[in-house]
TrEMBL record:
Membrane topology, from the record: Multi-pass membrane protein
SUPFAM superfamilies: Mitochondrial carrier (SSF103506)
Entry's Gene Ontology cellular component terms: mitochondrial membrane
Family: Belongs to the mitochondrial carrier (TC 2.A.29) family.
InterPro entries in alphabetical order: MCP_dom_sf, MCP_transmembrane
Protein's UniProt name: Fe(2+) transporter
UniProt GO molecular function: ferrous iron transmembrane transporter activity
Protein's UniProt keywords contain Chaperone: no
Keywords, sorted A to Z: Membrane, Mitochondrion, Mitochondrion inner membrane, Transmembrane, Transmembrane helix, Transport
Lineage, uppermost ranks: Eukaryota, Fungi, Dikarya, Ascomycota, Pezizomycotina
Compartment(s) where it occurs, according to its Swiss-Prot or TrEMBL record: Mitochondrion membrane
PANTHER family: MITOFERRIN-1, MITOFERRIN-1-RELATED
Length: 216
């Protein structure tokens, strides 16, 4: 469902901004990507919060349902969206960068060839775009993770973190600049194949439905 919302929003905004016209349209790509993640994150944020809490070392949650119920009982509905603004602070730049890079790389790799479905181009451009975006937004992801896991942290200072600036100051004071890039390599390694597969699947499905529509 989240990906359906994601790509439906992307195509709608891209079309509205003229991104499907011939030529290079980085602004349309960035804007449509940003709008897509705003819509899909509203749906996915509660699940992301639950996942983060269950992944924390020492977590006592035995199931997704137990984690959701305990979080709601102890912290209320707000706990599932307390990190939403911070999540958008990370995902909007990530998606805007990814979509802009993907559209640019796709056009560059296709060069003067007729635009259309090209598995190698879409897979390569998707992987590179995801890697670039993941590396550039690692600091924001580190801050987001701290905020999402503060409710189950045994560290009093982390539990009292109240927003982006507060979380960032804790990381800076304890680890310095390198703390903001903790896990960057793993993030890039995870993101590149994921976005390569995602874009490849999206483009092949899009190509199929366009062909079916044209045959009617």
């Amino acid at each position: 469902p989240a990906h359906a919302v994601y790509f439906a929003t992307y195509e709608a905004v891209k079309q509205a901004m003229g991104g499907n016209a011939s030529g290079h349209h980085p602004l349309a790509a960035a804007t449509s990507g940003a709008c897509a993640t705003i819509a899909s994150d509203a749906f996915m944020n509660p699940f992301d919060v639950i996942k983060q809490r269950m992944q924390v070392h020492g977590s006592t949650y035995r199931s997704i349902t137990e984690c959701a119920r305990t979080t709601f009982r102890n912290e209320g509905l707000r706990a599932f969206y307390v990190s939403y603004p911070t999540t958008l602070t990370m995902t909007v730049p990530f998606t805007a960068l990814q979509f802009t890079a993907y559209e640019s790389l796709t056009k560059l790799m296709q060069n003067h060839r007729q635009p259309g479905y090209d598995p190698l181009t879409h897979c390569t451009a998707g992987g590179l775009a995801g890697g670039i975006a993941a590396a550039a937004t690692t600091p924001l992801d580190v801050v987001k993770t701290l905020l999402q896991t503060r409710g189950v942290s045994s560290d009093p200072e982390i539990r009292l973190a109240r927003g982006l600036v507060s979380a960032a100051s804790i990381i800076w004071r304890r680890e310095g600049g390198k703390g903001f890039f903790r896990g960057m390599k793993a993030r890039v390694v995870a993101a590149a194949p994921s976005t390569a597969i995602c874009w490849s699947a999206y483009e092949v499905a899009k190509s199929y439905f366009i062909r079916v529509e044209n045959e009617k």
